[in-house]
Amino acid sequence: MSALPACPKCNSEYTYEDGDNYVCPECAHEWSKSAAADGTEDTKVVRDSNGNVLQDGDTITVIKDLKVKGSSLVVKVGTKVKNIRLVDGDHDIDCKIDGIGAMKLKSEFVKKA
What we know:
This protein is mainly beta. The chain has one helix at 33-38; strands at 16-18, 21-23, 30-32, 60-62, 66-67, 74-75, 80-81, 85-86, 93-97, 101-105, 110-112. A 3-stranded antiparallel beta sheet has the order 1-2-3. Strands 7-4-11 form a 3-stranded antiparallel beta sheet, with no helix packed on it. Strands 8-9-10 form a 3-stranded antiparallel beta sheet, with no helix packed on it. The longest helix is centred in the N-terminal third of the chain and has 6 residues, at 33-38. The protein is elongated. The model has no long low-confidence stretch (mean pLDDT 88).
């Protein structure tokens, strides 16, 4: 067995060293050796337009009319979205909007309901 820590994201035992980081080949998660030694992980905190922390399963409200790319549809101000999921990337909220379908939103255009 290797002395390297398991991946904190997927618990894979096949991690390897890459400079000052550990890398998981199964989920492509990277974390620093110092975070592994401290037992802490760099977690991204997603905040809405008012600064409230968002979590998976929250209900949010859209604060600005948002055009749907590639369509003539518009997500109107005040649209409530239930059961959001937080993801990594520029559009950090994954959700399903009634009448439109699956969408990705930026947290700067929503507020926690």
